[in-house]
Amino acid sequence: MGVKMTNWHSITKEEALQELDSALTGLTKKEAAKRQKQYGYNLLEAKKKTPLILRFISQFKDFMILTLIFAALVSFLVSFLHGELDIVEPAIIITIITLNAILGVVQESKAEKSLEALQKMSAPTALVMRDGLLESIDAKELVPGDIIYLETGHFVPADARLITSVNLKIDEASLTGESHPIEKDADKVLMENLLSAERINMVAATGIVTYGRGTAVVTATGMHTEVGHIARMIMEDETPMTPLQKKLASTGKALGIAALIICIIIFLVGILKNRPIFEMFMTSVSLAVAAIPEGLPAIVTIMLSLGVQRMARKNAVIRKLPAVETLGSATVICSDKTGTLTQNKMTVTELCSCKGKEAPDGSTGKFLLTLSSLCNDAVLQVSGKGKHQNVSATGEPTENALIMAAYQVGLSKSQLDLLNPRIFEIPFDSGRKQMTTVHKLSDGSYRQITKGAFDILLSECINIYRGNKDAPISNTLREQLTRLNEGMTAKALRVIAVAYKDYPADSSFPARLKNFNGTQKDRATGLEQGLTLAGMIGMIDPPRPEVREAVLTCQMAGITPVMITGDHVTTACAIAKELGILTKDTSMAQLRAAEIRSNHPDRYTSPVPQAMTGAELSQITQEELVEQIKDYRVFARVSPEHKVRIVKAFQTRGEVVAMTGDGVNDAPALKAADIGCAMGITGTDVAKNAADMILTDDNFATIVAAVKEGRGIYDNIKKAVHFLLSCNIGEILTIFVAILFGLPSPLVAVQLLWVNLVTDSLPAISLGVDPPDKDIMKKKPIPPNKGMFADGLAFKIITEGILIGSLALLAFIIGIRFFDSAALPGDLVRNSRTVELATLTTPYVGRTMAFAVLSLSQLFHAFNMRSEHSLTKIGLFSNMKLVLSFIICAFLQIIVISVKPLADIFKVVPLTPAQWSIVLVFSFLPIVVVELQKNRRNR
Q1: 541 is catalytic
Q2: In this predicted model, what pLDDT tens digit does every residue of 278-334 receive, in sequence order?
Q3: Does any domain span residue 483?
Q4: What is the SS3 assignment for 452?
Q5: Is residue 675 over pLDDT 80?
Q6: What sections of the protein cross the membrane (predicted)?
């Protein structure tokens, strides 16, 4: 911003005005214009957008894609030089990689959307003093030193130091994580090292005024505000690659290198055997096509897209395709508390009198709720009837909870107000920590009701409510009531005490009310004394009922749930213990020590098991956090920077981190995490645009379903990779061995493309819809550093590839020896090593049988991929899409061979029933062999 002072909360309001060279009458328009040039507009900077063409080009950086482009170009060049211009193969390859690039651009996350959403949150207008006059201006025109006016319902347009405050409460939940509005006090001067949530003499941009009014002097605008700092972190932090992206990139690079090596070897072998150079180029390109699963990127994209659709039906909307499988690898889920683990709605959970707990529908409970509803400014709204009835409350969250609790036992605030009209009130004051109203009762008498902090209200009470007859409060009774209050606070309940005082109808009380013309303190001194304590009401933002089971499921699945919140450590730990996130016993004394330690970190050193405050976090280095973080499950009173540090500390330890959240304060951590999960209902646009996934029902339990789906998708992708690579190795060996031993090529390039792009694709996609294993959530997460080919998968791929290749090659030799002998030169039959490749330029049975066996054996082999268990156990028809794809592909394969025009294109000949019988026996053998292996392993 340019203004040197940063700790505005630690100086007086007069010093702030002096530092900013401002006054209560505001800036002049001339001075404001001058500062506008110096500081710029009160807007967030937009990250420079990457041009569409560059985003498209960046999709071709993958090593496998570059290898395929090279293969396509070589294929075209060789065919052109050989005088046989063939554009089919390169055209198919280029089409596939282009479509894949387009999909990548469409699905690509745009970081600037997060910043655009932040800009939308800025208040469009602001009430400001200019030239001594109050006027409304565009919020972007605010400058440091401006005097702004804040009223109920206003957005806070910039960071500012309060000058005046009258019962001012600001909702900063989206920025600080606090679950309730923060009471502000302009007269306070605070310590320097305080978190944003604790700076009660400051207001921050994007806050909402929920109660009261105030004035403030602007201290920071634009990118120099708290929300601007968050925006800068979003701009600077890069989203990490998902585990699947890393593994597929590694796999593609390995396959590309292998393909090039094979091409070179085959080319050199061909040259040594005096084969034509051009023909060897074509053969090498064909092998490159066979070695690389060209359809793999598209198949993976399709499988992820299908997963996205399934997850959307389960209330989890994916914004980035590769993020689908990341949850399946998640080892830590860092969750915000407010609105994610809890309902973000204060709820009355306990009523107490001097006798102990009271039932809400009992006589004492109803009396207590009646008093708290009358001494209340919230408004109850009821719409609809019967099953369609909707009940809500508008006002301060604590007061909303009180009138909602009263409504649930048949007490309507509007009816209570009609029967007991309010004739006088003393608004809530942070200094007194209580509120008072006076009502005229139906019998003509008057009742004063006061509600507020227990300790302060108890000191004003002389009697205790005991039904029809009040009793004096003894010292023993005061101690008993204090213990009841401590028991409620130990459960992290916010305790509201309620007291009253009755005045007879013939008293001079109504006349006395008119004489209270002094200060609010004078009024309180005359009224809020000699009261009768009715009881205490405890409330909390309760956990979502389904979250505890979701947390347990995560723990069974080897996933560590961690709570990260801006709320107090006492409340956070109480919720965490109830949900099962905190598993060790944490005493109330430890929680209190942690609460005090968060304000005075230098005075307290005894740790709370598994819980750390933001103040403690600020005292340790990132290296120390990385070392210690494994012992903690709750982080309370944290700032946005702390959240990012926590996420990155887990990542440094090798964890795959999922982060849930809904507020502006969560956005940087959502983006830094391996996968960010934003809340769809309560989530801000900033959080949604920074996230990879949006939970449309704001339900933590939805994450469990998403984790299960993610694991299933990863398993299915692994099945597809297993299937494609074993098939492609079979194709490579078929050609490689034939050429190595002087045989003509069993397959031509167009046949290889047909097998790879048609026969392989449908079965592979069908494997992508296999249902997850029943015990998938009882397995540990897949380590991010664990290769895709671990646990013997590489060996399986190679051996199965050898099996498929051997069967195709055997069919090729049988076809040549027994069915082509009459049509081929005699020396081929006698000694295949002496035959030149050029002597076989027309279709023949051997090549057709090899083509058929290679295709059909892969179709049968797809069923082997479904599970480690036998097909008889999982059921042959439990994946009907795979059965359907088998039928379709087998039919297409038969048509290609049997229909003359198609046979000419694919350079094959129709087969006789005897030849088809051999093909079918060979093609079915992979099922037999793999089933025998499964039975042996599972014994």
Answers
A1: no
A2: 666 666 766 666 666 655 666 676 677 677 778 888 888 877 766 776 777 889 999
A3: yes
A4: strand
A5: yes
A6: 63-81, 87-106, 254-272, 284-306, 721-743, 749-769, 802-824, 844-863, 883-902, 914-932
The two three-digit tokens of residue 725, written as one number: 């690579």
**Domain end point (choices 478, 513, 540):** 540
- Asked if residue 902 and residue 770 are part of one domain, the reply reads yes
The 332-336 sheet, strands edge to edge: 316-318, 693-695, 675-679, 657-661, 332-336, 560-564, 634-636, 611-613
Report d(CA 134, CA 153) in Å as an integer. Answer: 18
Are 297 and 219 in the same domain? no
Q: For position 545, what pLDDT does the model report?
A: 84
**Mean residue pLDDT across the chain:** 79
The pLDDT tens digits for 613-638 are: 888 898 899 999 999 998 899 998 88
User: Measured between alpha carbons, how far is 598 from 141 in angstroms, rounded to an integer?
Assistant: 38
Which residues neighbour 786 within 8 Å (Cβ) at sequence distance 6 or greater? none
**Is the same domain home to 799 and 825?**
yes
Cβ-based burial of 344 (10 A; exposed 0-12, middle 13-18, buried ≥19): buried
Phi-psi region of 339 (alpha: psi -120 to 50; beta: other; left: phi over 0): left
431-448: pLDDT as tens digits: 778 899 999 998 889 999
Residue 526: domain span: 347-540
Q: What is the pLDDT of residues 240-263, one digit of tens each?
A: 555 565 666 667 667 767 767 877
Choose the catalytic residue: 62, 159, 171, 336. Answer: 336
How many structural domains is the chain composed of? 4
Q: In the prediction, which pLDDT does 77 show?
A: 73
Residues in CB range of 607: below 8 A, 6 or more apart: none
The mean per-residue pLDDT over the stretch 451-461 comes to 90
69 within a domain of the structure (yes/no): no
**Rounded to whole angstroms, how far apart are CA atoms 381 and 393?**
6
Same domain, 229 and 285: no
Cα 694 to Cα 765: distance, rounded to the nearest angstrom: 25
| Separation CA 10–CA 7 (nearest Å) | 6
Residues 856, 733 share a domain = yes
The CATH number of the domain where 168 resides is what?
2.70.150.10
Q: What are the tens digits of pLDDT across the range 524-577?
A: 556 788 899 999 999 998 888 888 888 888 888 889 999 988 777 888 888 888
CATH number of the domain enclosing 839: 1.20.1110.10
pLDDT at 836 over 50: no
Looking at the domain assignment, is residue 52 inside a domain?
A: no
Residue 576: other Cβ atoms inside 10 A: 28
Alpha carbon distance 554, 660 (integer Å)? 14
314 assigned to some structural domain = no
- pLDDT over 70 (residue 900): yes
DSSP bridge pairs for 351: 358, 537
Helix (H) or strand (E) holding 563: strand 560-564
Q: Residue 938 phi/psi, 5° resolution? A: -90, 5
Based on the domain organization, do 562 and 607 belong to the same domain? yes
Q: Where are the beta strands (DSSP E) in 39-173?
A: 125-130, 133-138, 147-151, 159-171
d(CA 194, CA 8): 11
For residues 354 and 386, state if they share a domain.
yes
Percent share of the chain, pLDDT over 90: 24
Beta bridge partners of 382: 391
The tally of CA atoms less than 13 A away on the side-chain side of residue 758 is 18
Are the C-beta atoms of 703 and 327 separated by less than 8 Å?
Answer: yes
Give the other-Cβ count within 10 Å of 815's Cβ. Answer: 27
AA identity, residue 813: I
The CATH number of the domain holding residue 329 is 3.40.50.1000
Q: Are strands 560-564 and 634-636 parallel, antiparallel or unpaired?
A: parallel
Q: Which of 665, 698, 731 is the last residue of a domain?
A: 698
* Beta partners for residue 425, in sequence order: 437
pTM: 0.64
Distance CA 850, CA 923 (A): 10
CB 559 within 8 A of CB 480: no
* 504 and 567 together in one domain: no
